[in-house]
Amino acid sequence: MPALHIEDLPEKEKLKLEVEQLRKEVKLQRQQVSKCSEEIKNYIEERSGEDPLVKGIPEDKNPFKEKGSCVIS
User: Fold this and answer.
1) Do the Cβ atoms of 19 and 12 come closer than 8 Å?
2) Which of these, 39, 43, 40, lies nearest to 51 by C-alpha position?
3) What predicted TM-score, i.e. pTM, was given to this entire model?
4) What is the distance between the alpha carbons of residues 3 and 30, in angstroms, rounded to a whole number?
5) Neighbouring C-beta atoms of residue 29, cutoff 10 Å
6) Could you tell me the keywords of this UniProt record (predicted)?
7) 59: CB partners within 8 A, 6+ apart
8) Torsion (CA) 5, 18, 26, 1 in degrees, nearest 10
9) How many CB atoms lie within 10 A of CB 9?
10) How many CB atoms lie within 10 A of CB 13?
């Protein structure tokens, strides 16, 4: 199936797509940013101890550690 390029559509089709998108968006349940950001902050703080980017990866479990060195003479 070829990709759909909005700029290639006639104006009437563009407007139909926009109305369809707006109908979908109006059905979405919205929440206050202040509440959501607090929930995200708590989620991150609760799991920071398990996060390898924060805690680091133990050398014995690190799949990316160097296996050995390479010497070119």
Assistant:
1) no
2) 43
3) 0.46
4) 31
5) 4
6) Cell membrane, Coiled coil, Lipoprotein, Membrane, Methylation, Prenylation, Transducer
7) 65
8) -30
9) 13
10) 12
**40-55 tens-digit pLDDT:** 999 999 998 888 888 8
Dihedral of alpha carbons 16, 19, 24, 27, sign: negative
Q: How many residues in the chain?
A: 73
* Residue 55 DSSP symbol: H
Q: Please identify which residue in the block is written with the tokens 């998108």.
A: 21
Structure tokens given for 25: 């968006």
CA distance 24 to 71: 60
Q: What is the Cα–Cα distance from 24 to 15, expressed in whole angstroms? A: 14
Separation CA 43–CA 47 (nearest Å): 6
Tens-place pLDDT, residues 16-40? 999 999 999 999 999 999 999 999 9
The structure tokens 């133990």 sit at: 58
